[in-house]
Amino acid sequence: xxxxxxxxxxxxxxxxxxxxxxxxxxxxxxxxxxxxxxxxxxxxxxxxxxxxxxxxxxxxxxxxxxxxxxxxxxxxxxxxxxxxxxxxxxxxxxxxxxxxxxxxxxxxxxxxxxxxxxxxxxxxxxxxxxxxxxxxxxxxxxxxxxxxxxxxxxxxxxxxxxxxxxxxxxxxxxxxxxxxxxxxxxxxxxxxxxxxxxxxxxxxxxxxxxxxxxxxxxxxxxxxxxxxxxxxxxxxxxxxxxxxxxxxxxxxxxx
Length: 255
Description:
This is RNA-binding motif protein, X-linked 2. With 255 residues, this protein is an alpha+beta fold. The protein contains 4 helices and 8 strands.
């Protein structure tokens, strides 16, 4: 991860504690590093020495150990290191006040160290392993009492309340999603029903139009047949009249 991103993340954690009104360091995010007095310092200028770093960081507590990482071959400073305070509470002040500041034209990163791994020395112990140059922890670790202290109870209650809030938020989000899906389903069903009703209406209108057109065609055919039959009748009458008149004429001529 980018070092500047880590600097911003630490600043965001501090801002969240300030927004929530948490000022007790036992309730802040620093409490998870209460057993370690080491801090990590990154982004330092390459020309700084141990004395320069001590002069800057000693204003928030007594420093008992410092380890600036250097190249094994050249001995040049790599720009980062570790520092141990006598009092663990000094690490909180250092992280809150030094993280993100500019030192020698560079933005430095200061963060807690949960488990510090000391560098290996040149001397070996009886088992043949290299001895550590410094101890694992400088400040005394807080003993774990059998009965929880009221501060620990407060921390546990605060964590539980946070978990409950998160669960409630998740439930509310799920309920909102379910309500939204139900509403969408209802809307889709309503649209489907409206579409079916429109389709039935259209079919009914079409069938009624077909029926009316058929009735009209039947009526036209009936009229045509009636007209045709009436014409044929009139013609037959005219023929009968003509025959009758010719018969009368013949009978008169004979007489």
